[in-house]
Design a protein that fits this description.
By secondary structure, this protein is mainly β. It is built from one helix and 22 strands. It has a ten-stranded mixed sheet with strand order 4-3-2-6-8-10-13-16-18-20, with no helix packed on it.
């Protein structure tokens, strides 16, 4: 009987070993190639470099690179979820965005450790191009993000001529710096709207003509809500701390809590 049990166990192990393996919380090193995360109706996958798409519902991106970038795509009615963990992407000399969000859906980014994103001319440090919400969170209260835009780009938000809208920050230690004409958080030489901060320590500095939080050059800053957290917003020359960039206006700015400077 004992021998039969051993044989049965071995057969089960062999059967399991023959089944296809799907990664559901893998760690991806940006130093090994560009990373594409895609959330679709059939689930979320990650593709790196020329590799095949791998099922991964909770990818963790780490490592350093001066040439590789991350694209997070969320299809309509979907939410792409990604964790940045001690990642350092500096493509400021490459004319690219370190991290870009795309698609019609929502993107959720969790912060772990110390993360730095620096982009090149025309791009935001963390460039929001998806049609839904971009939420930056720090559930474990151990995450930092430094995001620097290139010329015409926001720290977090729009690239050149791009609006930065639908951005929510619920936690983390955030330092967002716009390039020339870009907002710290909001528009990159464009409008910044529907921006909500409900927690964390947020330091947002606009480039020349850009608001700390709101519009970039010639951009309006509107529908900006702060309910909690510590927020320090500094506009560049001619830009508001919170509101419009140069030649832009600020409206519908609501502060109900937190410490705002």
């Amino acid at each position: 009987m004992k021998g039969k049990k051993i044989v049965s166990t071995l057969l089960v192990l062999l059967l399991l070993a023959s089944l296809p393996v799907s990664a559901h919380a893998a760690v991806w090193d940006i130093g090994k190639g560009n990373i594409m995360v895609n959330a679709g109706s059939g689930g979320q996958t990650v593709t790196q470099g020329d590799g095949a798409a791998v099922e991964d519902s909770a990818p963790v991106i780490t490592g350093s690179s001066t040439e590789n970038t991350v694209t997070i795509n969320a299809e309509k009615d979907q939410t792409a979820s990604v964790t940045l963990s001690d990642v350092n992407i500096d493509v400021s000399s490459e004319g690219k965005a370190a991290v870009t969000t795309t698609g019609e859906g929502n993107v959720s980014i969790e912060l772990n450790g110390d993360n730095t994103l620096k982009s090149g001319k025309g791009h935001a440090g963390l460039e929001k191009k998806n049609g839904g919400k971009l939420t930056i969170a720090d559930e474990d209260k151990n995450g930092k993000l430094t995001a620097e835009g290139g010329k015409y780009g926001a720290g977090i938000g729009g690239g050149d001529q791009g609006a930065g809208s639908g951005i929510t920050i619920t936690g983390g230690e955030i330092k967002a710096t716009g390039g020339q004409y870009g907002a710290g958080i909001g528009g990159g030489k464009g409008d910044g709207s529907d921006i909500t901060i409900s927690g964390g320590e947020v330091n947002a500095t606009g480039g020349t003509s850009g608001a700390g939080i709101g519009g970039g050059y010639n951009g309006n800053g509107s529908d900006i809500t702060i309910t909690d957290g510590e927020v320090n917003a500094t506009g560049g020359k001619y830009g508001a701390g919170i509101g419009g960039g140069e030649y832009g206006i600020g409206k519908d700015i609501i502060i109900t809590g937190g410490e705002v400077n």
